[in-house]
Amino acid sequence: MNIQDKITNYLTELHLSEIKKSLPELLNQAVTKQPSYPEFIKNCLETEVNARHQKSLKIRMKQARFPYQGLLKDFDYGFQTSVSKRQIETLKEMHWLKDAYNLIFLGPPGIGKTHLAIGLGIEAVNQGYHVYFITLDELLTILKTQNMLQRSRQKIKRLLAADLIILDEVGYGEVNKVEANLLFQFISGVYESVSVIVTTNKGFDEWPSFLGDAVITTALLDRLVHKSEIFNMTGDSYRLQHRNTIFK
Ligand code: ADP
Ligand code: MG
Question: Which one, out of 21, 38, 59, 146, has a CA that is 20 to 30 A from the CA of 138?
Fold first, then answer.
């Protein structure tokens, strides 16, 4: 067996598939560029590490289940003036995520709540965190079916393992008492260990009526708001202002 075959076998045994894939190129470069021995080893390891980071990023981005690519760089702060670029730039540093703070984006439809939540979520994924995007409606469905469906249990497991949960569209549908209780239990379960971004069209004073129970609402908000930053957003709907019509 020649030396290159031996190296290939070792790389297989050590699961260093990226070095294995690039071995001819790495060896070629070594001949043409004449790196020092440490530099050559560094180049090999870098090939493996970079490829693994890319793969993990791709998987985490897919697992986050973002409904669309709401990038922060595309956000127009001139249109939405109740949130400043400076605030978002500070949030991009993710200190709040490390400290399990929650963010609440509150306001009428179409003003960029979900866009900002996704934007921060994408940023978190880029920085190595696990993120899970879910609407309240979907969350309630999986909480209600967890005893019957393995699929729901799996999703809950993923949610609990995330660093950041984006809970979207809170307040759009009516929530019954059983659902309110399940939501409360879920939020209590992740309290102080997982960050939650909530987007909602309902002011806190309206929560008791859509959750149908004042006691549960108080307990839920108590946990959600304890360590949180609340963004009271106002303004016109971006959708309506930038409406596309069939007739130009
Ligand atoms: P909501 O507040 O109802 O969650 P979205 O965040 O989903 O609204 O925004 C609705 C649409 O308008 C999305 O396509 C989003 O990208 C766009 N949008 C809203 N606000 C802005 C903004 N300030 N700059 C750029 N795009 C925006
Ligand atoms: Mg939304």
Answer: 59
pTM equals 0.91
CATH class of segment(s) 72-241: alpha beta
* Three-state secondary-structure class, residue 64: coil
Pocket flag, ligand 1, residue 25 (CB < 6 Å): no
> Could you please report the per-residue DSSP string of 105-138?
EE-STTSSHHHHHHHHHHHHHHTT--EEEEEHHH
**Smallest-distance ligand from the CA of 78:** 1
Q: How far is the CA of 66 from the centre of ligand 1 (A)?
A: 14
Q: Ligand nearest 112 Cα, by number?
A: 1
Selection from 69, 89, 92, 65 nearest residue 77 by Cα: 89
Q: Where are the domain boundaries for CATH 3.40.50.300 in the chain?
A: 72-241
233: Cα separation from own chain's centroid: 21
Q: Is the CB of 105 under 6 A from ligand 1?
A: no
What pLDDT, in 10s, does the model give residues 40-59?
999 999 999 999 999 999 99
| Separation of CA 19 and ligand 2 centre (Å) | 43
Q: Are strands 228-232 and 164-170 parallel, antiparallel or unpaired?
A: unpaired
Task: Determine the distance separating the centroid of ligand 2 and the alpha carbon of 68, expressed in angstroms.
Answer: 11
